Amino acid sequence: MKKFRTRKIAAVAALGFATSFAVAAVPSQAADVTLKLVMASYTDDMVNYYDGLSQDFENANPGIKVDVDVVAWPEIGQKVKTLIASGQTPDIVNNDEFAGEAAAGLLYRADQIVDAATL
Fold it and tell me: Residue span of the signal peptide, if any (predicted)?
């Protein structure tokens, strides 16, 4: 149970982080924004969990839609690599496999897309 709680906190933090991106990405004119998330499935209930979390986020942030793709843990790395290769890069990924890509400078740092006051 503690493990699931830790992951739940991480998921909430990820959506909170998404808020930072959304605030930075939304122009002064009210344009609709869709955040694309790829999240790992740790339990059978993760789809329902992320659906509820996304709905709560969307209700609190009109004009921002959250599109969550919940992927089984063993397949998430390949799924994200395929999305990136096909030009469909997600905005947020719940995965730790991309240290190599980060080291190669292929990923944005948070300070490159969100102003310092938001961080």
Answer: 1-24
